[in-house]
From TrEMBL:
Top-rank lineage group of the source organism: Bacteria
Record domain 2Fe-2S ferredoxin-type: where: 6-82
PANTHER family, sorted: BLR6046 PROTEIN, OXIDOREDUCTASE WITH IRON-SULFUR SUBUNIT
Pfam families listed in its UniProt record: Fer2, Fer2_2
Keyword set, alphabetical order: 2Fe-2S, Iron, Iron-sulfur, Metal-binding, Oxidoreductase
Enzyme Commission (EC) number: 1.17.2.1
InterPro entries: 2Fe-2S-bd (IPR002888), 2Fe-2S-bd_dom_sf (IPR036884), 2Fe-2S_ferredoxin-like_sf (IPR036010), 2Fe-2S_ferredoxin-type (IPR001041), 2Fe2S_fd_BS (IPR006058), Beta-grasp_dom_sf (IPR012675), Diverse_Oxidoreductases (IPR051452)
Name of the protein described by the UniProt record: Nicotinate dehydrogenase subunit A
Length: 158
């Protein structure tokens, strides 16, 4: 079965934009190439590393395997939709405060997954955080700092 080109209105970071692409185009490519949003990263392209994570209708989702057609009538939030340089979201600020980055490639996925977790469970246990982040890969080894950042964000998020 071949994919068809579609024109859709997407709600990304609270703004509606219209895009035209093949229905099965990964949402990640639309976000990065068409909308110039570079928070979500291309990592594995298989939905296994988490670098491309966005929040769709409140749930962390791997945008590299999420088709454009599935994003219609959904609320999509990328890293750029959380906060600004001047006023970072509490999760972003916690990652800064805990210095939870080395190369930074995994940060998008870690932050977006943490945000979705904290929206569901405002005061998660360390075990819940570990379980939630276990499918996000970080090759630099900042796992302890990331864990501390999520715990800090839980304490600071209203």
């Amino acid at each position: 079965m071949t994919s068809q080109e579609i024109t859709v209105a997407l709600e990304v970071n609270g703004q509606t934009t219209t895009v035209t692409a093949m229905a099965d185009t990964p949402l990640l490519l639309i976000l990065r190439n068409d909308l110039q949003l570079n928070g979500p990263k291309y990592g594995c392209g298989l939905g296994e590393c988490g670098a491309c994570t966005v929040i769709i209708d409140g749930v962390a989702a791997r945008s590299c395997v999420f088709p454009l057609a599935g994003a219609v009538d959904r609320q999509i939030i990328t890293l750029e939709g959380l906060g600004t340089r001047a006023e970072p979201h509490p999760v972003q600020q916690a990652f800064i405060d805990e210095q939870a980055a080395q190369c930074g490639y995994c940060l998008n996925g870690m932050i977006m997954t943490a945000k979705a977790l904290l929206d569901r469970i405002p005061n998660p246990s360390e075990t819940q955080i570990r379980n939630e982040l276990s499918a996000n890969l970080c090759r630099c080894g900042t796992h302890i700092e990331i864990l501390r950042a999520v715990l800090r964000a839980a304490r600071q998020t209203p």
